[in-house]
Each structure stands twice: as structure tokens, then as C-alpha cells.
UniProtKB/TrEMBL annotation:
Pfam families: MTTB
Biological process according to GO: methylation
Keywords carried by this UniProt record: Methyltransferase, Plasmid, Transferase
Similarity remark: Belongs to the trimethylamine methyltransferase family.
Biased composition (Basic residues): 1-10
UniProt source species: Aliisedimentitalea scapharcae
Protein name: Trimethylamine methyltransferase family protein
Length: 498
């Protein structure tokens, strides 16, 4: 077999178009299983329902067609749930702080992002873990801002150097907004904390009501505590976000074998029911409000009961969750890339690779928790984030599949080559497709062994350390003007160093 070699030092080519590929070719559930699980989810809501509804949610639900069991559990008939699905928003626009850096969520358009609320970071200089700080949140999200294949950033770490819930919520939102002009996501401890954050976003965008017109931040809300129990504070946060126009990403994250059935089919049915219950409530509050279902079927290692994010079961369960929501036409988020490895080693690579790839191929609109995370989402790493961006470029390319376009098959060109120079390297088609059909790694190595040894034998971790340091040394993002930032700092308890 004849092999061709590229010259050392060939510069990295620009990446292909940022248009998100559409997934959905991978369908882990056959037609009967898909129908069975979906029907069971409807039956769960109709027969078992949800408990612990706060008084205002209970009244809202009963006024809009829900019923109540003798034990106080709210029941939603299939007709009611299907009606709310029909009314729901099918395409959620998430603009960036710079509007055209935004994304459209829905229809199987695959987007990859951060998330996870890790409480530790891995220091590359020492190889040790430490508590995460507000500055770590900024550093991680600055890296997201530069990454071609990471489309949004839900806060990946918790600022453990802040204790007051309101101060933490304000600083998390401010730091995310300052670090990247891509869409961001945040969370809230209490309903009362939503208003000051939205007011801050209004001021950053130019005045009252500006955020509602350009909602660059979504709220990640765990509206349910599995199994099938509403979370009172989260429901209050959900109502405030609807009132103030902040898009929602509402989460069901049961752990199979612990807070949902050990059988994956049963876990998926329960999780879908919990997700749909949230969608019903949101559309009772405001029909068509932008809401994305974060259906995150977590998995237990049944030997210990601990959560495992990198397992094959996690990969197939989250791909199935994406398929279930795509089948219903509902914007989706699933979880992937939650490696159980503690460093960016071979285990991290293979666990992240197949979990993210399966979720993307199944058509997940958003893939949370997918990049930069280690240790079953308990820790984050800037260097891992850089490596994962490289990996996701290849995964997103695989979702595109083999594309047929005018000139893709050119018999005249083939004849000219086989009767002429004998290779396609210099043809017009090859040069044209170099940056359209092909994706190139930023730090992944494709040198020959000898060239790699001669150039220093750097591992991908070595290169990630260098790349993360280069990003740290870049000028700070300037989409938030100095004048507005100064005004926000004067009015609010901002702890991020200027």
C-alpha cells in the first residue's frame, strides 16, 4: 500500500463550518422498545404521578387539568401531557452575549458544552486536586470561549471560596458572562436570587428588558428529586425564570439502581416521565416558553452504589434518552463525557470518546458535562478541556457522515489521475475539500514516530498544558465593556479580581 507523508511543520488548517451537524442515525431503541418506554412514561404520570408539589404548583396543575390522588400525588393524563407537548417550544434560541455566537436547540442539531458543578480542580503543575474557586470558573470558561467545538458553557465548577448563596449566584453568573460571549448557563439556590441576576444581565446588555430580548443565559434547574418527587425550591426558581424570561434547562438525573430502576428500560421510562412532568408545569406557567429537557440517566456501579459516568451503560442510556426526546420533537440535553478516570489518561479518552459519540450520533441537541471533567464529574481540568475540544471536533465530524454533493464523485477527474500523475494530492477537488470535508486536530499528533521523537516526544497532556497557558496569556475577552463592568462592580458584591 502506497503511503503519502506530509511535511513537518504544516500549519493547522482552519476548521470546517460551525454549522451544527444533525444526529439521529444511531437508534439504540428499536421501534417496539421506543414505543413501550414512551407509553410507560405516560402511564407513570397518569397512574403514579408526582409528589411534594408546593401549594402554588399544586393549584396551577389542578387549574390546568391535572388530578390529585388521595395521597396528594398529582396525576397528569396522557391527553393532558400530549397537549402540553404540542404547545411546547420545539426550537429554543440561545443567543450569545455576542448574539451571533448563539445556538438553536432542537431537531437533533448537536451541540457540546460544559457543566457538572465540580467541587475540585486538577492542578497540572502539581498533579494534585484542590477545592475549586471563582477564578477557576473564569479560567475554564475563558478556554471555552476559544474552543471551536464547544458551543456553550454551563458553569463547570462551584466557587467554593464563596459561601453566601446570593453572593455565589451573582458571582457565578457574572464570571460566566465576563469569561465568554457564547451562550452560558447557571443555577440558583433560591427563587429570590433570579431577579438580581437578570437585572445584572439587563444592565450588561444596555437597559431594562434587554436580557429578555437576548437571553444569552439559561437556567439549569433540577425540578425533580428522583424518584418522582418535585423539588420545592427548584420549582420556585423555575417560576421566577419563566416570569423574567430566562430560558430553562430542566433536569431529571436519577441514578439507575439507586433512585430509578436498575433495568435501563425502567430507568428510562421513569426519567422520561420526570422530564415530561417538568415540561407540563412549564407550559402551564406559560405555553411555548423556551424549555429544554435535560434527561440525564445516571448509572450506578452496582458493586458499590457509586455513580459511574464513563460506563457503557451510561453511553447507551443517554443515547436512548436523546432518541426518546427526539422522537417526541422536544429539545434535549443528555449527559456524556463523565469519565470516572482521575486524569486525562487512556481511560478518560475511551470513556469520553464512546459516551459523547453515542449521544451525538443519537441526535442529542445539547450534551452537558461532556468536556473538561474528571473523576465522575467531581473535578475539572483546563488541560482536559483543551484535549476534549480536539476530540469533539472529530466526533462532530463523524455525525456529519458521508456527504453527497455536486462533484463528490467525479469520473473525469479519476480518469485524469489514473492516466496521469497517479495521485489526487494536487487536484482542484482535493484543495477545495481540504478545509470542508476534513477536520484536523489542534493538539492531537499525526506525525511519524521518528518526526515525533525528533520534535520532543510531547504527549497530548504536554501540549494541553502549553495550550492552556497560551489561552491564559491572551488578552481578556472584551465583550463586556469596561464601563459596564465597573458599574456592576460598584453596585454588586463581585469577588472576581478585575
Amino acid at each position: 500500500m502506497r503511503r503519502t507523508r506530509t511535511k513537518r511543520g504544516t500549519p493547522r488548517q482552519p476548521q470546517i463550518s460551525a454549522t451544527p451537524p444533525i444526529g439521529g442515525r444511531f437508534m439504540p431503541l428499536g421501534p417496539e422498545s421506543l414505543k413501550n418506554i414512551t407509553d410507560t412514561a405516560f402511564e407513570i404520570l397518569e397512574r403514579i404521578g408526582i409528589s411534594n408539589a408546593p401549594a402554588d404548583i399544586r393549584a396551577l396543575a389542578l387549574d390546568n387539568g391535572a388530578t390529585e390522588r388521595a395521597d396528594g400525588r398529582l396525576l397528569f393524563s396522557r391527553v393532558l401531557v400530549e397537549d402540553m407537548i404540542a404547545k411546547s417550544c420545539k426550537r429554543v434560541e440561545l443567543p450569545g452575549f455576542i448574539r451571533d455566537r448563539g445556538i438553536e436547540v432542537g431537531g437533533g442539531r448537536v451541540h457540546i458544552g460544559t457543566g457538572g458543578a465540580a467541587v475540585q480542580v486538577l492542578e497540572s503543575s502539581t498533579g494534585k486536586f484542590r477545592d475549586s474557586k471563582l477564578s477557576d470558573l473564569y479560567d475554564l470558561m475563558r478556554i471555552v470561549d476559544t474552543c471551536d467545538n464547544i458551543h456553550y458553557s454551563l458553569r463547570p465548577v462551584v466557587a467554593r471560596d464563596l459561601e453566601d448563596p446570593l453572593t455565589l449566584d451573582i458571582n457565578t453568573a457574572f464570571t460566566a458572562m465576563k469569561a465568554t460571549s457564547k451562550p452560558i448557563g447557571t443555577s440558583f439556590f433560591e427563587p429570590e436570587n433570579v431577579t438580581p441576576v437578570v437585572e445584572m444581565f439587563d444592565e450588561a446588555l444596555g437597559g431594562e428588558g434587554a436580557f429578555a430580548k437576548q437571553p444569552f443565559c439559561f437556567a439549569s434547574i433540577c425540578h425533580v428529586v428522583p424518584p418522582l418527587t418535585l423539588a420545592e425550591e427548584a420549582c420556585g426558581v423555575m417560576r421566577e425564570c419563566v416570569r423574567l424570561g430566562m430560558p430553562l434547562q430542566i433536569c431529571s438525573a436519577a441514578q439507575a439502581g439507586a433512585t430509578s430502576p436498575a433495568a435501563l428500560a425502567g430507568a428510562l421510562a421513569q426519567g422520561l416521565a420526570e422530564s415530561l412532568a417538568g415540561l407540563v408545569l412549564v407550559n402551564m406557567m406559560k405555553p411555548g416558553f423556551p424549555c429544554i429537557l435535560a434527561f440525564l440517566p445516571f448509572i450506578s456501579d452496582l458493586r458499590t452504589g457509586a455513580m459511574t459516568g464513563g460506563s457503557g451503560e451510561a453511553a447507551v442510556a443517554n443515547a436512548a434518552a436523546a432518541q426518546l426526546l427526539l422522537n417526541l420533537g422536544i429539545p434535549s440535553t443528555v449527559s456524556a463525557g463523565m469519565t470516572d478516570a482521575k486524569t486525562a489518561d487512556a481511560q478518560s479518552g475511551y470513556e469520553k470518546g464512546y459516551t459523547i459519540a453515542l449521544a451525538a450520533q443519537a441526535g442529542a441537541d445539547m450534551i452537558n458535562l461532556s468536556v473538561g471533567m474528571l473523576g465522575s464529574i467531581m473535578a475539572a481540568s483546563k488541560e482536559a478541556l483543551v484535549i476534549d475540544d480536539d476530540m469533539c471536533g472529530a466526533i462532530l465530524r463523524s455525525v456529519r457522515g458521508v456527504e453527497m454533493f455536486d462533484g463528490a464523485i467525479d469520473l473525469d477527474m479519476i480518469e485524469q489521475v489514473v492516466t496521469g500523475e497517479g495521485h489526487f494530492l494536487g487536484t482542484a477537488q482535493t484543495l477545495d475539500l481540504m478545509t470542508k470535508e476534513y477536520v484536523y486536530p489542534s493538539i492531537g499528533d499525526r506525525q511519524s514516530v521518528n518526526d515525533w521523537l525528533e520534535s520532543g516526544a510531547q504527549t497530548i497532556w504536554d501540549k494541553a498544558i502549553i495550550r492552556a497557558a497560551e489561552i491564559d496569556a491572551l488578552p481578556a475577552p472584551d465583550h463586556l465593556s469596561a464601563e459596564i463592568e465597573a458599574a456592576l462592580r460598584a453596585r454588586l458584591p463581585i469577588h472576581l479580581k478585575a
